[in-house]
Every structure is written in C-alpha cells, then in structure tokens.
Amino acid sequence: MPKVRHYADLVASLAGLMWLMLYWSISISLHIGSPEPAMAALLLLGSMILISFVHRPVRVMLSRYHVRKRRTEMWMHILALPLTLAFLFASVIDHVISPMTGVQKMLLFNVLATASWLVFVVTLLMKLFVRAISERRTKNEA
Fold it and tell me: Which residues, 6 or more positions from 116, have their beta carbon under 8 angstroms from its beta carbon?
C-alpha cells in the first residue's frame, strides 16, 4: 500500500507542476504579446493527457483510488483556493488602490497557485516524514 501512496503523491505533484507550467506560460504569453509559450505548454499538456488515456498501464494506475484522491487534493490547492483568493484580492486592490489589468490579475492568480502548490508539496512531504517515523517506531517496538 505505501508504494501506491508514494506513486499517488508523485503523480499529483507532477500534474500540479504541469498545470502551473500552463498557467505561467499564459502569463508569459500575455507579457510578451505572443502566443508561442502558451501554445507550446498546451501542446505538451495535451500530449501528456493523450498518453495517459491511450497507454493502458498508465490509465490503470491513474484510475486507482489513492491517485484520484491526491489529484483532487492537488486541484483544490492549485485551482479552487487560488481562484477564490485572487478574485477577493483583485477586488480589494481594484477598489482600494487602483484598477488592475488582466495581465496583473493573471499574475496574481499564478503567484497564489504556485504558493498553494508548494503548500501541497510540503504537506505531502510532512505526511511522508510522519509515516516513516511511525513505521520505524512500530518496527522497533516489535
């Protein structure tokens, strides 16, 4: 069972990193005024999704409960929470300081999504550390 958890943690972390790459490539595309970075990220992301749907061993591994659970936790960290916070922060900044452009709002979302992904990864590492210590204690007691 622990190998499935490690695999689920790895898959969720890498999936989050891929989506962050897409988010940041959109910001870079908006900043330079060219769609090439976003198109390259979309091509890479589409290829990874296609491979995961077509390649049977990957499809079977991704359908396991632990992987689905970790990926749902990752989505909550890199999409739901940053979207909500970015909307609230942008609204407050718009009304209190000055209006924000779309590029600035996207940058705010990217910063919050990256911070949330880092929190997700640190949480997974802490869970791994606690699990390793508890397993070591049970082995020493037995």
Answer: 77, 78, 81, 82
Both structure tokens of 68 = 């689905």
Q: Provide the residue type at 4 as one letter.
A: V
Q: At 92, list the tokens.
A: 């407050």
DSSP-assigned letter for residue 97: T
Q: What pLDDT does 43 receive?
A: 92
The model's pTM: 0.80
Q: What are the contacts of 63-67 at 24+ separation with CB within 8 A?
A: 64/4, 64/8, 66/4, 66/5, 66/7, 66/8, 67/4, 67/7, 67/8, 67/11, 67/12
pLDDT in tens, 63-83: 666 667 777 778 787 778 888
**Would the pLDDT of 87 be above 90?**
no
Q: Which residue has the tokens 């790459």?
A: 21
